[in-house]
Amino acid sequence: PPLDNLTVDLGPDLTICDGEIVTLDPGAGVNGTWQDGSVQETFTTNEPGLYFVSIDGACGSGTDEIEIFSGSAPNLDLTEEIILCDGETQEVSITEEPDVDYEWSNGFTGPTTTIDQVGLITLTATSVDGCIEESSVNVIEGIALELGPDQTLCEGESLILDPGSGVSVTWQDG
């Protein structure tokens, strides 16, 4: 004998992040009529809103609905490159957003880290919605230039400034 009700379950309401695509599946294994009038087994979307499906089949009928909310990923604005000279440390920070967890690839947590070595440092930020954003900064080794002590030149005298071999420099006059 046919069943009176078919188990149709779209799951609990959920939050999707920017660009995330979700496929709704009522789990009945048959085509259903969705909120937009389409008839298909599953429904794919990347938009927030109220979605519902109604299924009428030989084994019964059932309906369910789900609300999809829009979450937002944290905003990360890291500089692309930092120059770090030997023995130096540099503090890097971003503007902290409420309800966001920050984790740096060098083990620091929070919106600020201290960098003391060259390489790629990545910041992962997770919003209260579960949306994740990553940004990286490339830390490169700087070159210490030494042109010697300040000099006083008399009229007609000249001085050769030499930053060393293998160094490309741009002087103050271009």
Architecture overview:
With 174 residues, the protein is mainly beta. The protein has no helices and 13 strands. The protein is rod-shaped.
Key descriptive features of the protein:
174 residues; mainly beta; five-stranded mixed sheet; four-stranded mixed sheet; 0% helix
* N- to C-terminal distance: 90 Å
Our estimate of the beta-strand percent is 35-45%
Largest sheet: 5 strands, mixed
What is the count of β-strands?
Answer: 13
Number of helices: 0
From the spread of the alpha carbons, the general shape counts as rod-shaped
Give the C-alpha Rg.
30 Å
Whole-number mean pLDDT: 89
Give the SSE order as H and E letters: EEEEEEEEEEEEE
**Helix-residue proportion:** under 10%
Strand order of the largest sheet: 1-7-6-3-4
Low-pLDDT segments: none
Structural class: mainly beta
Chain-wise SSE layout:
Blueprint: E1 14-16, E2 22-24, E3 32-34, E4 39-40, E5 43-45, E6 49-57, E7 60-70, E8 81-84, E9 90-93, E10 100-104, E11 112-115, E12 119-127, E13 132-141
Parallel strand pairs: 1-7, 8-13
Antiparallel strand pairs: 2-5, 3-4, 3-6, 6-7, 9-11, 10-12, 12-13
Short description:
By secondary structure, the chain is mainly beta. The protein is built from no helices and 13 strands.
